């Protein structure tokens, strides 16, 4: 999902759509292509090489609708939804939190969570944010830096007064950068530069693969001291509110290809968790 943290944690900044694809191309009219908004450099979600799981799932959905798939590329950290889907630049976004404001979504086709990443050889295991060893641990956190957004683990750490021994890691490449930096925080754990990283599960799962069994990934599903903060998010395909018919067509496509889509997520290293919708909706 392009810019997951961006549109997950700054939903209040979303505005209503000014252009509706449903008005331009009725849902029952022949479609020439399924146009998806995606980040061109946001592994494991999407890339211009079309090797991200969003790219692959979009291709599955398009094939079910017997149309080609194409992408409108836009950086995920730059007010992504407002400047792409909600402005009519595409038909859908393949992975957004279920029920995200200003959209209508399919039923979730996977749920993941934030995770703690440590070295497998480290005897210290993450159980909760109250673990005593965290007070002296070198901690890595994603540097979101978008419209004041922060991550659920950062909120839990700040609740406990953890302000030292924290290293921020950029999640977004500067314009023109040759390599996206999302995996740097995982590499830092493997290299012993930090002791634990708290990151979004699909990012951790994807970039941990190259380290074999050297890393341990522990899902974080809740924090008793911050019960209002969600750590688990059911993910769905999202369209504009006017495009209910398209949403329903995409739901039928998802239902018809559950095995294939599950295999795509598994190949991308996405750690899956069970979702309790009444507790984890953003």
From TrEMBL:
The Solute-binding protein family 3/N-terminal domain, residue ranges? 33-271
Q: Which UniProt keywords apply?
A: Signal
Q: In terms of domain of life, where is this protein from?
A: Bacteria
Determine if Signal is one of this entry's keywords: yes
- Specify the signal sequence span: 1-22
Task: Quote the InterPro entries the UniProt record gives.
Answer: Quinoprotein_dehydrogenase, Solute-binding_3/MltF_N
Q: Does the keyword Signal apply?
A: yes
What is the name of the protein in this document?
A: Quinoprotein dehydrogenase-associated putative ABC transporter substrate-binding protein
């Amino acid at each position: 999902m392009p810019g997951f943290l961006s549109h997950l944690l700054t939903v209040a900044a979303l505005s209503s759509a000014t252009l509706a694809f449903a008005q331009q191309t009725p849902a029952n009219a022949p479609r020439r292509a399924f146009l998806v908004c995606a980040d061109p450099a946001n592994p494991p979600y999407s890339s211009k090489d079309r090797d991200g799981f969003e790219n692959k799932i979009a291709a599955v959905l398009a094939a079910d609708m017997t149309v080609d798939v194409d992408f409108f590329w836009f950086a995920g950290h730059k007010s992504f939804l407002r400047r792409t889907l909600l402005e009519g630049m595409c038909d859908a976004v393949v992975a957004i939190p279920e029920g995200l404001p200003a959209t209508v979504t399919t039923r979730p086709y996977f749920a993941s969570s934030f995770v703690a990443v440590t070295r497998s050889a480290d005897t210290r295991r993450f159980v909760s944010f109250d673990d005593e060893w965290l007070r002296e641990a070198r901690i890595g956190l994603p540097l979101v830096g978008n419209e004041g957004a922060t991550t659920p683990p950062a909120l839990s750490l700040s609740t406990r007064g953890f302000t030292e021994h924290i290293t921020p890691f950029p999640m977004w490449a500067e314009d023109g950068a040759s390599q996206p930096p999302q995996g740097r925080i995982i590499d830092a754990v493997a290299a012993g530069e930090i002791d634990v990283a708290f990151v979004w599960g699909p990012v951790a799962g994807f970039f941990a693969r190259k380290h074999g069994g050297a890393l341990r990934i522990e899902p974080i599903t809740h924090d008793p001291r911050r019960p209002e903060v969600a750590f688990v998010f059911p993910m769905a395909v999202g369209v504009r509110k006017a495009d209910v018919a398209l949403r329903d067509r995409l739901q039928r496509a998802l239902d018809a290809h559950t095995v294939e889509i599950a295999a795509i997520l598994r190949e991308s290293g996405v750690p899956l968790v069970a979702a309790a919708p009444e507790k984890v909706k953003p």
